[in-house]
Amino acid sequence: MVSTDRGDLTRTAILALLGTVGPLSRSEIARRLDLSPATVTQLTRELMGHGMLEELDLKPSRGGRPAVRLGLVGSAGRALGVKVTADHLVLVDVRLDGEVLGSWERPFDPSAPDALDALAGAISSVVAESSADERTPPLLGIGVGVPGSVDDQAAGTVNAPTLGWRAMAVGDWLRRRLELPVLVENDVNALAAAERLYGRGRTHRDFLVVTIGRGVGAAIVADGRVYRGARGGAGEFGHLPVDPGGPVCGCGARGCLEAYVGAAGLLASARARNVHLDLPALGRAAAGGDAGAREVFAEAGAILGRATAGLINVVDPEVVVVLGEGTADWPLWRASFDAALRAQLYPGRRDISVEVESWDDTSWAQGAAALVLATPFDAAGAAGEQGRLVRARLIGATP
Asked: Could you say which DSSP state residue 237 is in?
């Protein structure tokens, strides 16, 4: 039996596949997503019932009965995705078929007393702008990705030290201000949802997403579902203990992985080598052959490689996807990361593929939008009242 809770992204993976490659037959969908024909038949029937898929022309065959191709009804709905950072917001408008209709960037100060008012105001202005054309698909809801732990997507209470937020009622505040369904999630988990729908994760049901940049994060996708843990805090990879006598981390503990390989850790390592540069300049210096700068990235790569090997040994994924603004300097990390990773991997896992994707801030926001696009299939009710409201908006807008 196929799981139907919010974490199960298989239905939305079908939508994303069709949105990416165009109409396909049921057998082609089953082959590309490694699903059984019976599962694909069941799920596509549900999607057609929701008005999201339609049968198109027949695909010619060399013998036997021609296969009916299925295509997306992209106009069935759309979602607005919002990525919250320490100094700005990224917002994207995404159709059910994965097509990005528009993107925006707005300044943002999470430490301001009126931060949630400012967040609601920025979203409201984009909602108005994106909905101005009456031909635009109906808006199903808002997805918000934050760099911290979230108790539950439907409730949306956030603890995010990098934003200075503690028990911040983001979801409740935005729902009251916007009068729209709102789902809030850890940004790396949201990114994993986008990767499952639009990226390399489309063809893998078990994979890891590791992000490097200002901080370090991870998301675990197991059997096609993002694993959140008991309190929504799974994936805090940056706070894996590396050395109890190490530098103080932003979380208050000593020797966390992030304290070594996050942006602040890299700069501290550079200063210890008498290299006083900002991060972009540090990367340029290393690329230009500066020995001290190169040592910074080589050391960080080895530390990250060992930590990632430990995570792989525990969860046994098919593939690891590395993302984040830090990937701009990945050639400087790669050699030491690969050597440390392979040396620490359990036998039989040393051939695992590590895929490094180019970075784009809109990827975070697409993940947040994917939270909403997956919600209509929450038959088990894990998204609570917000899921019911999203489904009501979808069903009310489609035949």
From this structure: G
pLDDT digits (tens, 9 = 90+) for 148-181: 899 888 889 999 988 999 999 999 999 999 999 9
Cα–Cα distance, 335 to 1 (Å, whole number): 43
> Average pLDDT for residues 121-140, to the nearest whole number?
92
**What type of residue sits at position 155?**
A
Helices and strands: H and E segment counts in the chain: 13, 16
Distances (CA, A) of 68 to 16, 20, 103, 141: 19, 18, 35, 32
CATH class of 10-74: mainly alpha
CATH architecture of 205-356: 2-Layer Sandwich (3.30)
Residue 54's contacts (CB-CB under 8 Å, 6 or more residues apart) are 48, 70, 71, 72, 73
62-112: pLDDT as tens digits = 555 678 999 877 777 899 999 999 999 999 999 877 788 999 999 999 999
* Residue 310 to residue 307: CA distance in whole angstroms: 5
Residues 150 and 186: beta-carbon distance below 8 Å: yes
Contacts of 61 (CB under 8 A, 6+ apart): 67
Task: Show the tokens assigned to 232.
Answer: 């929504």
d(CA 354, CA 188): 17
Instruction: Kindly state which CATH superfamily the domain 76-192+361-397 is placed in.
Output: ATPase, nucleotide binding domain (3.30.420.40)
Q: Where are the beta strands (DSSP E) in 60-174?
A: 67-72, 78-84, 88-95, 100-107, 139-146, 149-150, 157-160, 165-169
And the tokens for 112? 């301001």
Do 10-74 and 76-192+361-397 fold alike per CATH?
no
Q: Indicate the domain borders of the chain.
A: 10-74, 76-192+361-397, 205-356
Contact yes or no for 155/171 (Cβ under 8 A): yes
